[in-house]
Amino acid sequence: MAVSISFFHFESNKFWAFKQMVEAKKYFSNNDKVSFYKMLGTGGKGGFIYPDFSVYSLLCVWNKAEYLKEFIESSNHAKEIKAKAKKRIDYIMEPIFSNGLWDNINPFKVKEEIKSKNNNKIGVITRGKIKLSKQIDFWLNVSSASDAIKNANGVEFYKGIGELPLLSQATFSVWKNHKSISDFAYKNKAHSEIIKKTRDRKWYSEDLFARFEIKEIKTQNF
Fold first, then answer.
1. CA distances for 60 relative to 29, 31, 46, 68, 180, angstroms
2. Over the stretch 133-170, which tens digit does the pLDDT of each residue have?
3. Is residue 158 a contact partner of residue 150, using CB atoms and an 8 Å limit?
4. Of 152, 207, 149, 158, which Cα lies nearest the Cα of 57?
5. How confident is the model over 127-141, as pLDDT tens digits?
6. Please, where are the H alpha helices in 91-176?
7. What's the rounded Cα separation, in Å, for the pair 194 and 169?
8. What CA–CA distance (Å, rounded) separates 41 from 18?
9. How far apart are CA 5 and CA 161, in angstroms?
C-alpha cells in the first residue's frame, strides 16, 4: 500500500479545476489500483472558512507503490494536470498510525512491522464530519485550532482540505519529525483546549486521525 496526497496549483483554468471535483471521478471509479480516493477543495488563509480556488487536492490510497508512480508521472490525469496547472506537489507516504473512520471505513491500513525513523518528516491528516446541530459552535472555535497548528514549532506545511463545504473538513500538515508532533500534542495549551472541546461538545459524527511517514515530496512546475 502507498498513500499520496497531491496539491494542484492554478493561475488560470480555475473553472476547469473546480469542475474536476466531479469530472475527475472517471479516473478512479471502478479502478482496482485504488482502494480509496477523495477529491478535495482547500481553504485559504490557513484554515477552512475562506475557500482557495487556486489550489485543489487529491488523496489516494494505492494498492501498490508502482501504481502511484505511474499515476503521477504518465497517466492521462497527469497529462491533464500538466496542461492546465501551474504546479503540482505530491506527498508520497506510508501510514504509521490511523484511528477513526472516513465514510465508515479506516482507509489507511498500518503494517504492524513498520517502525518509522525518528528524524523522518511526518504527514498528519485529521478529518471530521461536523454534525448539523453543531455547525455554529464548531465554526466559532475552528480558527483557534488552525492558529495553534500554523504557529507550532516544527510545522513545515499546513492546509485545510475538505469534501463538502462547512460539513466535512480535514487538515493536512507536514512536521519536521516525531518530536515536533509530540511536543505540540502534549505541550500546546491551545491544542489541548480544542481537543477537550471536541470531546465535550461532540462536534463530529465521524472523525479520523492518521500519521504517515513521508517517503518523498515531488514538486513539478509547468
1. 12, 12, 23, 9, 26
2. 777 676 666 666 666 677 778 899 999 898 876 667 88
3. yes
4. 158
5. 988 877 777 676 666
6. 135-150
7. 15
8. 8
9. 11
Q: What angle do CA 219, 220, 221 make, to 5 degrees?
A: 125
Average pLDDT for the chain: 86
| Collapsed DSSP state (helix, strand, coil) of residue 144 | helix
176 touches 59 (CB < 8 A): no
Neighbours of 215 (CB within 10 A): 16
Place of cell 472516513: 102
* 15 — pLDDT class (breaks 50, 70, 90): very high
Grid cell locating 177: 519529525
Q: Which three cell numbers stand for residue 19?
A: 469542475
What spatial distance separates the first Cα and last Cα of the chain, rounded to whole Å? 29
The closest of 184, 187, 164, 167 to 175, measured between CA atoms, is 184
